[in-house]
Amino acid sequence: MASAAVRGHSVVYAPRIQGLLAREEKVFRIDAATVGVSDSRLIAGIVAERPVTATERSVYKPAAGAEIDHDSATRTIRALGQDVMAGILTPPPPVRGLSGAWPYAATGYLRQWLFSADPAPVSLLSRRGVTRSAAFSRVVDRAVAVWPGGAAGGGRTALAERIREASAGQDRRQAIALYRRATATLCDGVAALASNALWLMGPEREPEEVPVDLTAVLWETLRLLPPAWMLFRMGGGAYTELHPEIRPQDNVALFPLLMHRHVDYWEDPLEFRPERWAGVADPEKTPAFMPFGFEGARCWAKHLVVPLAERLLSVAFASRLVISGPRQQAQVPLRSLLSVRFDAGAIV
Ligand code: HEM
């Protein structure tokens, strides 16, 4: 499973990911407190066994000292959906923004495309220079907390409207946190996916060579290099009946990355073959495939991710963007989102 040569170029995984890819068993101990799982049935069983807890959540972990209630969570996703759909229909920013170090260039480009119309200080919440600094983030949070908001609408995103409508205090602080998390999860996730897709398509691709079926390319990318490569469950208490290796005191790490390239589940698992998704009406019904989680804990934003990544890649191809380096052996560092690093530039 470790070899990842695809179309004559390969990735170098961080040593810990490399170590996981070398594991042959589907249930294995990673350390004294963690069991790793890549068995399709067991992963499905674990995901269905209990809902994720508030602290295991990422977007909806508690904010401003309180849990996020269901109503606020669903309204946030609805607002994000409106903003993505509206963004996809607006003209993209100048394509020079896509040149540079990926996936960061793509993250910044998406933020600018979708959220820069928000009035200051809200738009600063998603600006990369700000999100990378805890001190800057606190200053911007405070500015948004006292932001007068003005009249309804006014060309802002639906997510910014959620902040404007929130009453002062905890409501507003939660709306601010959700704006920041939703925009970051979206832009980072879609940038990682697009980065992985560009790499898998290969640096030798001619700039004008646009793949016929970009949707299939993206599903195949979600299989071979899934941005959400590991899901984590704290505590094994609920799972001890499911497998003898799991003890109550264990944490459990579920690995779509390993499951998606296991020879028991896939034909020629290491080959990048978008054709395998041609004509597949609902890829997520495919056994041993869970780029957005299984039934019971499925990603709330999955319907937004693939269309936005597709639009971003179309813009990249239209601007004749190609990978400028490295041509071989790009790095995949150990991060919560799995993403290939490379430089890209437009051919003029
Ligand atoms: C490339 C982008 C994304 C990928 C690959 C992805 C993948 C996933 C996966 C695998 C899960 C299951 C997690 C688990 O069971 O532990 C999940 C759950 C979830 N995702 Fe996503 N996701 C993406 C983007 C987003 C975005 C943009 C949002 C919203 C802002 C979002 C919101 C959620 C929520 C709310 C859950 C359910 C977990 C919970 O209840 O908190 N995701 N996602």
Outline, from the CA principal axes? globular
- The CATH class turns out to be Mainly Alpha
The CATH homologous superfamily corresponds to Cytochrome P450
The ordered H/E elements are EHEEHHEHHHHHHEEHHEEE
Low-confidence stretches: none
Strand order of the largest sheet: 2-3-6-5
Mean pLDDT: 92
**Percent range of helical residues:** 25-40%
Termini separation comes to 39 Å
- Assign the CATH architecture: Orthogonal Bundle
Compute the number of helices. 11
Here the CATH topology equals Cytochrome p450
| Beta-strand residue percentage | 5-15%
Largest sheet: 4 strands, mixed
Ligands bound to this protein structure: protoporphyrin IX containing FE
Kindly provide the radius of gyration, computed on alpha-carbon positions and rounded to a whole number of angstroms.
21 Å
Number of domains: 1
Structure notes:
The chain is an alpha/beta fold. The chain has a single domain (11-346), classed as Cytochrome P450 (Cytochrome p450, Orthogonal Bundle). It is 39% helix and 10% strand. It has 11 helices and 9 strands. It has helices at 15-21, 40-49, 70-89, 104-115, 128-131, 134-145, 158-165, 170-201, 214-224, 256-259, 302-318; strands at 11-13, 27-31, 34-37, 100-102, 231-233, 251-254, 321-325, 330-332, 342-346. It has a 4-stranded mixed beta sheet. The chain has a 3-stranded antiparallel beta sheet with strand order 4-9-7. A hairpin with a 2-residue loop joins strand 2 (27-31) and strand 3. Helix 7 (158-165) packs antiparallel against helix 8 and helix 9 (214-224) crosses helix 11. The longest helix has 32 residues, at 170-201. The site of protoporphyrin IX containing FE has 23 residues, from helix 8.
